[in-house]
Batch of 3 targets.
Target 1
Amino acid sequence: MEAISKARFVRIAPRKTRLVIGLIRGLTIEAARRQLLVSTKISAKPVLKALNSAVANAVNNLKLDEKSLMVSKAFVDEGPKIKRHTPRAQGRATPIRLRMSHITIVVSAGAEAKKVKKAVNKKKASAA
């Protein structure tokens, strides 16, 4: 069983957030929390918030044990851009795109997460 959490419209660029998401993918909840708490990246805070929400969903809605949970899937999608302009030389303007992220974290019981990870590895091996 899987519990999902989504943090949408986070005002951090997806490229920066993907660096942090890559750190926690496949880890246990305790190890993922430790990793996020010591990270100096600005996007670690909203990722931690989404992780805690996914764990709360698993514990309260699905009645899973928090100690057996793992981060089975974690990814970041690009949200809408806020478009602004800044003045440049000779009366020109340069666009500024303020990017947003949609963070999705899926946690599942340890045995299920290992099965998902093995299936992903098999697909990668067969593709290569």
Note: The longest helix spans residues 44-61.
Target 2
Amino acid sequence: MGYGFAMRDNWDKISFTYLALAIAGLVGTWYYNLQAILAGSNFFADWSSTPAVLSATTDLLVVASVASIFIFIEGRRLSMKYWWLYILGSFITAIAFTFPLFLANRQRKLKARK
């Protein structure tokens, strides 16, 4: 079973939708990350700069925690290879990228089981 982007190998419309959202999550988050880096912002200090930012930070951390638990449980349940890389990858890239990417590959795995 390859990991190409053709409709073969269990890629369906749902998988492609998740993949498109993963790409949007990667591009969107890293566009702003690069702007912050180039501006010399204190990236982590800025996460707690205002109550509105703290609200968004809390929201992100809770969703990222739930997504990580889901990836752990589903990845093991479905015997997905390298499921842990999605969790690790979220610290390097963004959960907005790795979670929909996991869902795309989960969908492929579920389709292959039918």
Note: The chain has a mean pLDDT of 89.
Target 3
Amino acid sequence: MKKYIFLLLLSLITVTGCKTVKKSTASTECIQTEISQYPTATDLVIGEKVEKTISWNFWTLQFPQPSFETRKNNLIADIVKSNGADVLVDVQTSFTKVMFGKRTLTVTGYLGTFKNFRKASIEDIEAYKYVKKNK
């Protein structure tokens, strides 16, 4: 009998001794913020026309192969970087392929460089609104 009382007492101590305590001390406060942006205008100087071509084979050891968009964007970035321009304007692409054979991607465009960064004037904002409206 003493054995059963001892086991009962031991199990009660074990059950009541493991108590989970949850306490939260976090608090939040609403912070009012305002972000004001003023548009920036710039002049775009259009340079010479450039063209670059890359070729690759369908059967390569590189899996997965980059998508067409990835190849095109990388080629545009390479043209802009190698010519020291800021953007490529009026981009045109030409893609040819032979089934299970050679692929060729050609990108053509005009080099563009930004000059004369300034705070946008009322005339700049009105011109932007006009272009956006008639797009």
Note: Residues 40-133 form one domain.
